[in-house]
Amino acid sequence: MRWTVHSVRDLYQDQWVHVQSADVELPDGRHLDHRLIKTAAPGAGLVIVHDQRVLLLWRHRFITDTWGWEIPQGSIRPDEDPADAAAREAEEETGWRAHRPIRPLLYSQPSPGLMTSQHHIFRADGATQVGPPKDAFESDKIEWIPLADIRGLIDKRDIVAGTTLAALLYILAASSQPAD
């Protein structure tokens, strides 16, 4: 069932986020004062797989005050190709340059009931270390984690970020499928 938006008003806006309030009518006639969060730019991430291992960053997220493993990801610049943004972000955050080709893996809207955030996630098979990360503030450590360990890390809540979860579970599901 489609909800009807009667009006939208701005609550706050800066370079990163635009928060709005919408008068939304539900199919049964009730109205909600619903919040919308519009993000400034879509994101791109890259899963780099090599020898049954994946390159991950160990990060602290101050908003939730939690630590966890994540794929490298960040914003797509204006007029930047999403695959190029994913490769750029991975290199800046890890110091590893992904081998080409970089192939689409999945597209995600992490929280479509609240925000417009879009994530374009790609896969590369292999990478070459080109130096230290340019964005060393992004993580405490960067490691090649065996794919066989991913399920246990999820169970221990060492992987909780939604886009990383979706991407790694997709990789695991694809690796368990018989070859065509």
H/E series, N to C? EEEEEEEHEEEEEHH
State the low-pLDDT regions, or none.
Answer: none
By CATH, the superfamily of the largest domain comes out as Nucleoside Triphosphate Pyrophosphohydrolase
N- to C-terminal distance: 38 Å
Radius of gyration: 19 Å
Helix content: 10-25%
SSE layout and pairing:
Elements: E1 4-13, E2 17-25, E3 31-39, E4 43-50, E5 53-61, E6 66-70, E7 73-75, H1 82-94, E8 96-98, E9 102-108, E10 119-125, E11 127-129, E12 141-146, H2 147-155, H3 162-175
Parallel strand pairs: 4-10
Antiparallel strand pairs: 1-2, 2-3, 4-5, 4-7, 5-6, 5-12, 8-11, 9-10
Helix pairs in contact: 2-3
Which properties best describe this structure?
44% strand; 7-stranded mixed β-sheet; globular; 3-stranded antiparallel β-sheet; single chain; 3 helices; Nucleoside Triphosphate Pyrophosphohydrolase; alpha+beta; 2 domains; 180 residues
Explain what this protein looks like in three dimensions:
This protein is α+β, with helices and mostly antiparallel strands. It folds into two domains: 36 residues; 133 residues, Nucleoside Triphosphate Pyrophosphohydrolase, CATH 3.90.79.10. Helices cover 20% and strands 44% of the residues. It has three helices and twelve strands; from the N terminus they run E-E-E-E-E-E-E-H-E-E-E-E-E-H-H. Strands 4, 5, 6, 7, 9, 10 and 12 form a seven-stranded mixed β-sheet that branches. Strands 1-2-3 form a three-stranded antiparallel β-sheet, with no helix packed on it. A hairpin with a 2-residue loop joins strand 4 and strand 5. Helix 2 packs across helix 3. It is globular and about 55 Å long. The model has no long low-confidence stretch (mean pLDDT 94).
